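Tip: read the tokens left to right.
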């Protein structure tokens, strides 16, 4: 009978239950557990398995380039960073509110480490997210124009709960890329989706990077309407071989 049950569980793709069947049956025989308790424990194992599989998938799809977490961030080396503020953001209320985060600071001051840690926290809590270097995203948007997959790419990007755009400031831009970038951020704004941006440029300097001015005006206006801007000062963490 056990083999028949196992076969059915595998056919129904109840992998968590199948993996724990022997353990639960052995424990039930030892403790004299009721049928209801056995069934409950099997369902608990199935739920746990599916949650872990879903988390693994979200992390894979997010394309995180580093395994950094907020727990591993060296706050003691950056006393100018408000740790309380960062840990409050890790509570993810900003995602529910569709608020954007913009980290501004020189290279190596911890922008990417903090942003990645917050994104990972979102993934752990069931949100869908994606990490992009801004130049890679712009190149992907440009390629989608050629093969006419832009609408599909936009649907994917606009459905993400958190989109992390790293290194706004090291770009080679074509006009088509700028138009697509503006359109993307506008659609995410309209959909109340949170975008996290790291950059070495304060807002006035964005006009030196992005054109035309009226579109940059509109971009910054929408971005800052629901936005928390975190300016990071101080020396580079890279001298100590730690997070960006």
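Filled-in amino acids:
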């Amino acid at each position: 009978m056990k083999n028949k049950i196992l076969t059915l569980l595998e056919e129904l793709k109840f992998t968590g239950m199948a993996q724990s069947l022997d353990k639960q049956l052995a424990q039930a025989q030892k403790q004299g557990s009721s049928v209801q308790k056995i069934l409950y424990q099997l369902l608990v194992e199935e739920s746990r398995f599916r949650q872990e599989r879903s988390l693994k998938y979200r992390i894979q799809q997010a394309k995180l380039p580093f395994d950094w977490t907020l727990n591993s961030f060296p706050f003691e080396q950056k006393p100018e960073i408000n740790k309380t503020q960062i840990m409050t953001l890790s509570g993810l209320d900003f995602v529910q509110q569709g608020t954007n985060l913009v980290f501004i600071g020189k290279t190596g001051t911890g922008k990417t480490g903090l942003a990645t840690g917050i994104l990972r926290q979102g993934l752990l809590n069931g949100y869908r997210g994606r990490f992009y270097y801004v130049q890679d995203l712009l190149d992907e948007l440009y390629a989608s124009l050629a093969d006419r997959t832009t609408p599909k790419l936009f649907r994917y990007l606009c459905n993400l709960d958190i989109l992390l755009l790293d290194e706004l400031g090291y770009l080679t831009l074509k006009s088509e890329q700028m138009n697509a970038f503006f359109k993307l951020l506008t659609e995410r704004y309209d959909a109340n989706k949170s975008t996290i941006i790291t950059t070495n440029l304060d807002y006035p300097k964005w006009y030196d990077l992005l054109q035309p001015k009226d579109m940059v005006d509109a971009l910054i206006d929408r971005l800052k309407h629901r936005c928390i801007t975190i300016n990071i000062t101080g020396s580079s963490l890279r001298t100590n071989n730690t997070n960006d």
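The chain has two domains: 2-62, 70-240. Residues 35-62 form the longest helix (28 residues).
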